[in-house]
Amino acid sequence: MARTPTHQIPLGFKAIEFDLPDVITGEKVSLNQVSKKNGLVVIFICNHCPYVVHVIDQIVKLANDYLNKEIGFVAISSNDVVNYPDDDPKKMKLFAEEKDFPFPYLYDESQDIAKLYDAACTPDYSVFNSELKCVYRGQLDDSRPSNNEPVNGKDLRLVLDYILENKKIDFIQKPSIGCNIKWK
């Protein structure tokens, strides 16, 4: 497992359109379908990454806390399933059902969406405001599988609270760390 950080790129870019299959429902899901009035959190994850497994319950809790505040959530897996069969769409569906995802879990078979979002790791978070402009590309919190920090989502919660209060995000954005996306 290679420890890979989120790419730090200039903020302010618009959320990029997608139309990907949701492994939970079997239906295609677009950016407009997951965006909410106050913003959107796009998370690149996969089933087998120990960094994702470590935080997935907090991601689900966070989504449940903010979906009713009109902030959308979507998870996308872009891993190569030929070489990493644990990330196959059937197993993605089982993972989403087991963890009771309140958001779509999309499969990016071509890996084009991951490239367009400049995703590098799992988990990789991009947060967009009400205008769908990226205001955050950072970590969930300081917890990692190898440390004793609590998994509490404090960094991402702070960002979402700032969005809801129309406050400018004025704090350092620490990159997320995780396994690299498994490119074809």
Q: Care to describe what's here?
A:
The protein is of the alpha+beta class and 184 residues long. It has one domain (3-180): 3-Layer(aba) Sandwich (Glutaredoxin), CATH 3.40.30.10. The protein is built from five helices and ten strands; from the N terminus they run βββαβαβαβαβββαβ. The chain has helices spanning 31-34, 50-66, 89-99, 112-116, 154-164; strands at 3-5, 19-21, 28-30, 39-44, 71-77, 105-107, 121-122, 124-128, 134-136, 177-180. A five-stranded mixed beta sheet has the order 6-5-4-8-9. A three-stranded antiparallel beta sheet has the order 1-10-7, covered by helices on one side. A two-stranded antiparallel ribbon has the order 2-3. The model has no long low-confidence stretch (mean pLDDT 96).
Low-pLDDT regions: none
Helix-strand pattern: EEEHEHEHEHEEEHE
Question: Fraction of residues in helices?
Answer: 25-40%
Task: Write down the CATH class.
Answer: Alpha Beta
End-to-end C-alpha gap: 16 Å
| Mean pLDDT value | 96
Q: What name does CATH use for the topology?
A: Glutaredoxin
Beta-strand level of the residues, as a percent range?
15-25%
Across the major sheet, the strand order is 6-5-4-8-9
Number of helices: 5
> What's the CATH H-level superfamily name?
Glutaredoxin
What class, by secondary structure content?
alpha+beta
Query: Any idea what the CATH architecture is?
Result: 3-Layer(aba) Sandwich
The shape, in one word, is globular
Radius of gyration: 15 Å
